[in-house]
Write a structure and sequence with these properties.
By secondary structure, the protein is mainly α. The chain folds into two domains: 122 residues, no CATH class; 41 residues, no CATH class. It is 65% helix and 0% strand. The protein has seven helices and no strands. Helix 1 crosses helix 3 and helix 3 packs antiparallel against helix 4. The protein is extended, with a radius of gyration of 21 Å.
Length: 171
Amino acid sequence: MDYSKLPYYALFLCLFIVAQSLSMWGQYVTLPFKSLSMWEAYKMAIPFAWLDWVVMTFTVMVGHEYDLVTPTQDTFLLIIIQFCLILVINQYYLKKEVYRSDIFAFFIILIGFFVSFLHLVSKAFNIPIPEHLGSADPDDASASLKTLRYNVVTKSKGDVKYANIKAGEGS
């Protein structure tokens, strides 16, 4: 692990937790109010969604800028944080009981995250860990031929013939 990235991991994790806290609170804030209209519930929840969108935009930017996690690990982290927040909201806001099976499920999800993050299965069976396909830009790494052609034509200076652009010449 590259310890010079440790402050960026801390920033990424803090931003992720803030964004998901806003998201989950927005989803649960209206539940105790049984007689809200659809419009009233929307007015209560939508500011949380907007704030989540703003904070999550910066979170993803930090994650991609410093190459901290893969998209799959983003998803695992989202699941883990939302799961924890749901348990906290259920326990303290909605006054619902948290069961041992909930805690057990959390640890199963956590183990899956660490297996993915540390590449444990790949290392155990000597399976090569895939890299981006020759590109530091994830948009180019997963781009289709049509997108690659568009990027070459729009980003290139000079005369480029569309018909002569082949896969792999996208950047």
